[in-house]
Amino acid sequence: MDFLLALSRPPLVLGVDPRPELHGPEPLSHLRRYALEVFEALAPKLAAVKFQLAFFEALGPEGFGLLCELASAARVMGLPVIFDGKRGDIGSTAEAYARAYLLRFPGSALTVNPYLGLDTLTPFFQAARESQGAVFVLVKTSNPGSGFLQDLLVEGRPLYLRLVEALARKGEGYREGEWSRVGMVVGATYPEVVLTVREKAPHAPFLLPGVGAQGGRPLKGPGLLNTASRALFYPGGRPDLEGALQAAEDFHRALVE
To answer: In this structure, what CATH number is given to the domain that contains residue 239?
Structure first.
């Protein structure tokens, strides 16, 4: 599976941020069943499944095992996988992260942090090309405080925009057809920024977090992957398969209105 095929699927990404306290006396067993049911029910309506690594890591070794099991199940169902870990480090450590999530899971994507320098991202980009995966670099994140650093003016332009321009140039070397394997994370909570970034990076896939619980609305356009986590995986604040199906329908309706 080539991750870039996700861009030809319905532009909705299911975010999985497991909350064991919502799953009864045997939380991991119930979480496993519920997640598989949601994947199967929503598969035709999704571009990909995004796993927030922190929530699985918080569950210890059993949580990491569950992550691997659910990621493999999603891929068997034909759903591309995004590992949301915002990884970033220098040298051999970056290479190890790239092996762990891109080479071990060919055709998958990983979110990364650029603030150690663009040279530290090269191992991720190379692994994405080798594995037919993708990398989503944090550019303008969905949280309200993102502007503290990301909006700082550098030579008259916001820092995030200078980063976008550098990544767009870099991404041309990893472009295959219309799309690059170097994507960007841009919060759906800042729709005007999405438009600005698209002008500077016409060939980069965008991962758009913040849809639903954070107040962002689904955005239309090629190469946009709208991501909903709590609003889609736990509609109404609890496991609810019928509610998840309805939420997916509502998101799709918003994209065609």
So the answer is: 3.20.20.70
